[in-house]
Amino acid sequence: MVPKGNRIAGLSPHAAAAHEAEEEAGVLGAVCPTPLGSFRYRKTRTNGASLMADVSLFPFAVTEELDDWLESGERERRWFRLEEAAQAVNEPDLAALIRGFRTSDCETLTERAKKEEIGATRLGGNSMFRWFQSMMPKQGNFFNLFEAHTATLIGGADALARLLQGGPGMNDHIKEIFQREHEADDITREVLQSVRRTFITPFDRSAITSLIGVMDDAIDQMNGTAKAIELYEVKTFEPQMRDMAGIIVDAARVTAEAIPLLRDVAKNAGRLHDLTERLVTMEGHADEIHDRGLKELFKANAESPMQFVVGREIYTHLERTIDRFEDVANEIQGLVIDHA
């Protein structure tokens, strides 16, 4: 079973889920407030009654594993690959949610890079077209570059989530975000150069530059968040800020799954639709969290306007980061419409 428990008075559902994860599995991290879905199971109560219970499942990015925790004497913490986890749990609906968290046939970026040569083409067609294609410059390595960029998004998002938890090591997390942003800039530059020097491209050139542009904008906003925190020496963060960081982590994960599927848009159109729909849903949820957090920040700092200004800047960068992931979703949806 995954860590779970009853609703806790005074805590939102996702915060209660994170609390249960700490108590039952001894893990800390960033929880995404937007649920993956829900499942039902039959729960036996202490009085003997066996009742159906509805469970909402939330993505949780683990940043720390505790050596000792509240229920360490009662439970065993173990990590699984997704398919192994789906086979291990007792509830079929939970297994389906685990499998849907990321498609089981998605290869990691490293595995794909090892298997595929730079510049490998994916175009097919009749023999005459293949002969003509062989005489032309190759498609370039756009897919590899896109996937390499998603690795910087995941790394930057994870570092941002750790940063907003505060405590020791904040400077290291800031430094990592800066480095990830520089890596992303190098990849973006290579994509833009490849667009100019490549004769045949897998998509329209403007679509390629737009997609890599909004991906790069996302990590630029993460970088802006880290810069503001470093500049103003912020050490503590509002719960809503951490919630938005949790959404950013999951948005990066969804993007990292979606981008490789663009290698065969027609085949993967259904899954791409599901993933982009989740990105759009998370953006709407993030707007609500942003507005609520900003309002509470204003009330708490009515006599400290500078504290409010600093907090608002952090909120703004976080919101814009998630907005850029929605832009990624829109670009991918456009490709699906054009090519599927």
Going across the major beta sheet, what is the strand order? Answer: 1-4
Biggest beta-sheet profile: 2 strands, antiparallel
The helix tally amounts to 11
Mean pLDDT: 89
From the helix content, strand content and strand pairing, which structural class follows?
Answer: mainly alpha
Task: Report how far the terminal alpha carbons are from each other.
Answer: 38 Å
Q: Proportion of β residues?
A: 5-15%
Which term fits the overall shape? globular
Reading the helices and strands in chain order gives HEEEEHHHHHHHHHH
Q: Helix coverage percent of residues?
A: 55-70%
Radius of gyration: 22 Å
Low-confidence stretches: 113-125, 131-137
Number of strands: 4
Report on this structure.
The chain is globular. With about 350 residues, the protein is mainly alpha-helical. The strands form two sheets. Strands 1-4 form a two-stranded antiparallel sheet. A two-stranded antiparallel sheet has the order 2-3. Helices cover about 65% and strands about 10% of the residues. Strand 2 (about 35-45) and strand 3 form a beta hairpin. The protein has eleven helices and four strands, in the order αββββαααααααααα. The protein starts with 12 loop residues before the first helix and ends with a helix.
